[in-house]
Amino acid sequence: MSFDISFQPLRVLIDGHDSEGKLVLADHQLAAVIVRLDGQSHDPQHKGLWHLEAGFGTCNVRYAPLFKTPEEAGTWVDQTLTGKAGW
Fold first, then answer.
1. DSSP single-letter state for residue 58
2. Where exactly are the structural domains of the chain?
C-alpha cells in the first residue's frame, strides 16, 4: 500500500541563512523535512540537490541519499514507510 505523498514549501534556517525547504507529508502526516543544498559550505557537486534534514518514524535515518528532486525524495519516503526501500 502506497502513501499519498504531498509537499508544503517553507524556509529553513540552516548554517546562518535560510534555505528552500519542503515538508514531506505522507497521508497528511509529517514524515520528513527536506532542504535544497545551496549554501557555500556544501560540496559544489551537491549544490541544488535535496537533503533529508529531518525524518520521522521509519524515515528517521542516519544516512539518507541526496535527491535530485522533491518528488524523488517523496518516492524514498513512500518506499521507506512501506518497507520497500532498497538503499
1. G
2. 5-81
Contact in structure between 9 and 22 (CB atoms under 8 Å): yes
Report d(CA 17, CA 37) in Å as an integer.
12
Which triple of cell numbers denotes residue 69?
Answer: 528532486
**Is 53 within 8 Å of 33 (Cβ atoms)?**
yes
Length of the chain: 87
Query: Rounded CA gap, 19 and 70, in Å?
Result: 14
pLDDT tens sequence for the chain (87 residues): 899 999 999 999 876 666 899 999 999 999 999 999 886 666 778 889 999 999 999 999 999 999 999 999 999 999 999 998 765
